[in-house]
Amino acid sequence: MNNKKHNQRIISGLSYVVLVLCCLIVLLPLSWMVITSLKSMQDITLSKGLDLFPSGPSIANFINIWKDYPIATYFKNSILSVGGSTIIGVFCASLCGYALSRYTFKGKEFLLKFLLVTQMFPAVMKIIPYYKILVTVHLNNTITGLMIVYASFTIPFCTWMMYGYFKSISTVLDEAARVDGCSAFYTFWKIILPLALPGLVATTIYAFLQNWNEYMFASVLMSADAKKTITYAISTMADAYKIQWNYLMCIAIVSSIPTLIVFIVLQKHLIAGMTAGAVKE
Length: 281
Prior knowledge:
The structure is a single chain. By secondary structure, the chain is mostly helical. It has 13 helices and no strands.
């Protein structure tokens, strides 16, 4: 019995050691990014390897990037395009997912498979078609056009996410609502959607992160610098002549703040939705 407990303690200790090593591996690039952002270019050039405690750390780089580059404009463009596309994409995906989970119609299975097939094509294949469409409808080089493009990326997979969660909610609730005289949209909006809060939050987080980190379409479809997003700003720190490593790391840290805020805020609702009671099949 004592040997069994001893072996369990050894296994538990080894497990903690492995977890700590994995955490260090994950945190090393992040710590390097923070350390580099606090250095001057001279310190970066002269340093050999990773300095855990850089000499003379300064936040001047974080101040200078706002002065030397239109970071505020890039941030505004990203928030407008990504925020709008996330709202549009998640709303449309919720409606589609609910309809697919509740109604049976001809071609339903084909539609579900088609939504997945659209995710298999490389994004680079879609640049020219999207560009020609935006030019035709006079939405090229506009935040509205980029918003629509981003929403079209997220709707197919978000529809599958919401479809799977709506399938787990009992149809008894829909039948009870119809008996009480509720319309289909009222049933969706007031009864089913609140119960699908965990799935809705997870879908929102996915859509936001997917669009916030997008670079290729933002750089190609938006030709004017005043319309570029924050991901484009990161690329401007590196050119053919030099790379501003300290500024690059600063903007990388700043650009990650909105994603952290979104996750922290929505995480509360995700946990609340998971612990809320609901009638499920």
